[in-house]
Amino acid sequence: MRDSERKALRYKIENLSNLPTIPGVLKRIIRLIENPKVSLSDIGAFVTKDPALTTKILKMVNSPLYGFPGRISSVNQALVLLGLNVTKGLLLGVSVFELMQKAMTGLWEHSLACAICSRIIAQDMGMKDPEEVSCAGLLHDLGKVAIALEIPGIYQNYMEEAKEKRLPLYQIEDEHLSFTHAHAGGWVTRKWNFPKSLIDVIEFHHKPQLSKVAPDHSNVVHIADILVRARGLGFAGDYVVPPVNPKAWERLGLSEERVVNILSRMEEDMAESEGVFD
Ligand SMILES: [Fe+2]
Ligand SMILES: [Fe+2]
After folding, report:
1. CA 215–ligand 2 middle distance (angstroms)
2. Looking at the CA of 224, which ligand is closest?
3. How far is the CA of 238 from the centre of ligand 1 (A)?
């Protein structure tokens, strides 16, 4: 791809030129969450006006994606429990569900498994905000959706190339575009005024050593992403397991025993989530 084409593509991704082709409800959700002045009660009012969205949110918060004990029966209760940042991510998560499936078969399952695994690791490590880490896990590959929307055919070729060369997809992206889906996800979520910690994880999930705002979250999502790929849950365009960053691994201090335990809890939760989001 020529330099000028690359610049044009970046501009399109950053400005979501394909926004007109995405569903109306998602467009309204993005407008809502990108407004820095939006409050939890604004979001609550928006969601409760839409019965389909209400059902989706309640299914999501009562699923193993979040570790809440007992049943949450109202949207307002859910939002208060989740807080503003996680709510924004959740809202985006439920609304990009269809887009993710359209962008890449298996991407939703990959993202969901990564969210669940990220939460389990965060809880295991006693981190104070496992829901936020889970949310970052759900959205970490959002940049793949953005790229696939803009250049579907070309992106398909990149995946083929990654398969042939046995290389991680981000490496092929970088070779052709001089940026990766991690950058693309960062551009989009920055444009949407997402919380800085979430942008940081999305941007650095393949290079967690560069994460400055939320290094712990980035380490967790980086490892969760690879564990999920290694277990073959879902599909995110990678035919090989991407390399583990040794610093991130070291920081988490995961023993073999703990990894085995995390994996079995993740698989249980994934089995329990089956069908919840259809
Ligand atoms: Fe990724
Ligand atoms: Fe991923």
Report:
1. 17
2. 2
3. 9
- Ligand 1 center to 181 CA (angstroms): 7
Locate all alpha helices (DSSP H) within 49-166, ordered by sequence. Answer: 51-61, 75-103, 107-124, 130-139, 142-150, 152-165
Find the ligand nearest to 233 CA.
2
| Predicted model pTM | 0.91
What is the distance in A from the centroid of ligand 2 to the CA of 47?
28
Compare 25 and 54 and report the one with higher pLDDT.
54
Burial per residue of 79-88, b for 16 or more beta-carbon CB atoms within 10 angstroms, e otherwise: beebeebbbb
Tell me, in angstroms, the distance from the centre of ligand 2 to residue 187's CA. Answer: 17
Burial class (CB in 10 A: 0-12, 13-18, 19+), 34: middle
144: Cβ–Cβ under 8 A, 6 or more apart, which residues? 103, 104, 107, 169, 181, 184, 185, 236, 237
Q: 76-128: per-residue pLDDT in tens?
A: 999 998 888 888 888 888 877 778 888 888 999 999 999 999 999 999 999 99
